[in-house]
Amino acid sequence: MDEESRITKEGIRIHAGTDFAGMHKAGALAARILDEVGPMVAPGVATGVLDDFIRERIQQEGATSATIGYRGYQHASCISVNHVVCHGIPGEKVLQNGDILNIDVTVIVDGWYGDTSRMYVAGKPSIKAQRLIQVTHDSLMKGIEAVRPGATFGDIGAAIQTYAEAQRMSVVRDFCGHGLGRVFHAPPNVLHFGRAGKGPVLEEGMFFTIEPMINLGRPETKVLADDWTAVTRDKSLSAQFEHSIGVTADGCEIFTASDRFFPEFG
Ligand code: MF3
Ligand code: CO
Ligand code: CO
Question: The CATH number of the domain where 45 resides is what?
Answer without folding.
Answer: 3.90.230.10
